Amino acid sequence: MLGYKPLTKSIDFIFADPPYNLSGKNYLTCKNGKVAICNKGEWDEIEDIHKFNRQWLESCIRVLADDGTIWISGTLHNHPSVGVLLKKLGLWIINDIIWYKPNAAPLLQGNRFAPSTELIWLASKSKKYFFNYELARELNGGKQMRNLWTLSATRHLTIHPTEKPESLMQRIISIGSKEGNTVLDPFMGSGTTGVVAKQLGRNFIGIEIDQSYFDIATQRIDNAVREPSLFVPSQSKSNARHCQLSLS
Length: 248
Fold this sequence. Notes:
248 residues; 7 helices; 27% helix; 27% strand; Rossmann fold; two-stranded antiparallel sheet; disordered C terminus; alpha/beta; 11 strands
């Protein structure tokens, strides 16, 4: 959504996949089996990543409801900055989730381990927040869901270079929010968060600076349909609860 400013504490759930700051002449990637300069777009070239992260995080905190949660995806390139800022800005860090991709692309260089994970911070304003524990457990075969998630990377549905799999977003949104909640994605990209939010019966607000990606996202979300049977196990509706932690 362009030109929209959410009201203070009006958002129940936030998923943010901010720029990892991987693009530029000092960053290399693999294209067609050869080493090449990484160029995801101008949006991924940020001079002061820590300052940038603070600015968007402060805006997200302003609009996040007191019992809402924020989930932030990243890699080692920006994740430490986000973690430090979550602490400095007074948020309660609930989990650091490791998304392991067993089919991650191989590495050409022989001087390091092949990257196969992304990291997700899960945080809230206080120790009272919504978290569908029973649903998470049922999705995990009746056992507690751990913070190591094995989910294969999938072929992108659009031209956006950092598109997340719908399966990942279905798990995150279904556990972290309720039907009718308002979901915000401040880096909407090609709109996967909005598609899944609509599938799961949530309201959605997306923010995107690139008009071409905004247009792709709009079309995808318009074409998405509600899927009532998606992630609605037998006990999830009756047992979903707010978590009140007593940890210090």
